[in-house]
Design brief:
CATH topology: TIM Barrel
Protein name: Aldo/keto reductase
Helix content: 25-40%
GO molecular function: oxidoreductase activity
Strand content: 5-15%
Distance between the termini: 23 Å
Order of helices and strands: EEEHEHEHEHEHEHHEHHEHH
Pfam family, one: Aldo_ket_red
CATH superfamily: NADP-dependent oxidoreductase domain
Organism: Sphingopyxis alaskensis (strain DSM 13593 / LMG 18877 / RB2256) (Sphingomonas alaskensis)
Number of helices: 11
Length: about 300
């Protein structure tokens, strides 16, 4: 039986002129537990040494509801200040537009402030991929686009993406942008398959967006499945994992990467060995039958 294509080690980031690894590392929990700069640097090295070049953070990472806003960016900035040569080895992505205690704010005034603050915390003169974290329904996409195009023109950011946007919201913003979007970041996992069937991935392929999958392990539920559905998906992944001598999480990453949209799973682990291990997902091969077995388990019903 024929095998699905092996994902490339790197892929173009839309029309940005940059290439990114087919797996990313995310820093949602990067600033937890009083991590030292030296410990943080070890995690950054683990990702880069494994060939993971896309590092994804956000200004709200580290916020606990009362404080810590910007902590993940600031910690990464300290790592880069200590080892400046690391900056050129990575494609640095961050997000903004969530403004505690407000829900979301993409007014021109705040977006400009947020981008400048991220640059300052990250101790860099450019952000390679800047993404709107969640859509602000009260912001007109034309005004948002004007602010982002100005930031591109000023050299503060190199490319643009969105996170948690609907297809219509993505199209509306993209229609006003001079520098078109290159990435979209929805939640995708073997337990969260909406994107496969609601048109989001089809739209991404049509307009050249790289899908960055947050929570590719279903918020950890794949590692400790409880419901019958979760267990069925885990079992389908385990059959491939056992045959190819990898863990279930590696099989889950590779399952996403087998999709023709070029899904880039964002590994959320903050353990160096698991970050490094994630790169082995590039070597896992799927047959169509095996891939659809996982999808059917996730749907909980046979295909039409």
């Amino acid at each position: 039986m024929s095998l699905l294509p092996v994902p490339p080690a790197s892929r173009p980031l839309g029309n940005s002129g940059m290439s990114v690894s087919s797996i990313a590392w995310g820093m949602w929990r990067f600033a937890e537990g009083g991590r030292t700069v030296a410990d943080a640097a070890r995690l950054v090295h683990a990702a880069l040494d494994a060939g993971i070049t896309l590092l994804d953070t956000a200004d709200i990472y580290g916020f606990d509801g009362a404080g810590g806003f910007g902590d993940a960016e600031a910690l990464l900035g300290e790592v880069l200040a200590t080892e400046p040569a690391l900056r050129d080895r990575m494609v640095l992505a961050t997000k903004g537009g969530i403004r505690p205690p407000l829900p979301y704010d993409q007014s021109p005034e705040y977006l400009g402030e947020a981008i400048h603050a991220s640059l300052r915390r990250l101790r860099t003169d450019r952000i390679d991929l800047w993404q709107i974290h969640r859509p602000d329904i009260l912001a007109h996409p034309q005004e948002v686009a004007r602010t982002l195009d100005d930031a591109i023109a000023a050299g503060k950011i190199r490319s643009l993406g969105v996170s948690n946007f609907t297809i219509a919201q993505t199209d509306a913003l993209n229609g006003f942008l001079g520098s078109k979007l290159v990435a979209t970041q929805p939640e995708i996992s073997p337990l969260r398959i909406d994107c496969f069937e609601n048109g989001e991935l089809d739209r991404a392929m049509a307009i050249g967006l790289v899908p960055l999958a947050w929570s590719p392990l279903g918020g950890g539920r794949l590692l400790a499945p409880q419901s019958d559905r979760d267990k069925a998906v885990a079992a389908a992944l385990d059959r491939v994992a056992a045959a190819q001598n990898v863990s279930r999480e590696i099989a889950a990453y590779s399952w996403l990467m087998a999709h023709p949209a070029g899904i880039v799973p964002i590994v959320g682990s903050q353990r160096a060995e698991r970050i490094g291990e994630a790169a082995s997902a590039l070597r896992v091969r799927w047959t169509r039958s095996e891939w659809y077995d996982v999808l059917v388990a996730a749907r909980g019903a046979a295909l039409p």
